Amino acid sequence: MYKDSSDFREDYPNGYAREGDVYDGNGNHVGYVTGDGDYRITESGSNDGQLYHNK
Description:
- By secondary structure, the protein is mainly beta.
- It has one helix at residues 5-11; strands at residues 3-4, 16-18, 21-23, 29-33, 39-41, 51-53.
- The mean pLDDT is 95.
């Protein structure tokens, strides 16, 4: 399912990216930043594989 940066803020209110990695805001690494600058979730259980397109 297509999601964007506003969906990321809803799913991870304190989430952020640093040095190519994506965190959930609670100290947990949940994914990585793609070459296009989007966020790919890989370590978040039921949300694994989700891609958030950054606008």
